[in-house]
Design a protein that fits this description.
By secondary structure, the chain is mainly alpha-helical. It has one domain. The chain has a two-stranded antiparallel sheet with strand order 1-2. A hairpin with a 2-residue loop joins β1 and β2. The N and C termini lie close together (11 Å). Keywords: Membrane, Transmembrane, Transmembrane helix.
Length: 135
């Protein structure tokens, strides 16, 4: 009843040759683009966080320096960590919308058109269609 669409989608996904998708130039381009952004940004964020922790542990005098009122350097750098997290998230979303999503959409359309079907799956598609009409 309500699961007919779900079972049809699962039958379609079972026919996809995922190793062929992974070996395709489009998927390799998508993967390369993703990694070329994520790994350098992740490394920079980890260095920034580690620097903050090391300063907090070993540079007590510097971190306790008052900037104004009761606000010290440690508080400002701690808030900068939060701001950095939001900034990197917005940067990644923008990057993904511009560079990753169009390639992923094209790849998904190719998969849905059956360009990556397993060998012999075309025959089962006709059988599945015949079964659906007899139900």
């Amino acid at each position: 009843m309500g699961n007919d669409a779900l079972s049809a989608e699962q039958a379609t996904l079972e026919r996809v040759d995922y190793p062929a998708v992974q070996a395709s130039p489009e998927f390799q381009k998508l993967r390369r683009s993703h990694r070329s952004f994520v790994f350098p940004v992740l490394g920079a964020c980890l260095v920034w966080y580690l620097a903050y922790v090391l300063l907090a542990v070993y540079a007590h005098d510097f971190m306790s320096t008052r900037v104004f009122g009761s606000v010290n350097v440690a508080m400002i750098l701690g808030l900068a960590q939060v701001v950095t997290t939001f900034a990197v998230t917005m940067w990644y979303v923008s990057f993904a919308n511009r560079k990753l999503d169009p390639v992923a959409e094209n790849l998904r359309e190719e998969i849905e058109r059956g360009e990556f079907e397993k060998a012999g799956a075309a025959g089962t598609a006709a059988v599945d269609g015949a079964e659906e009409t007899t139900r």
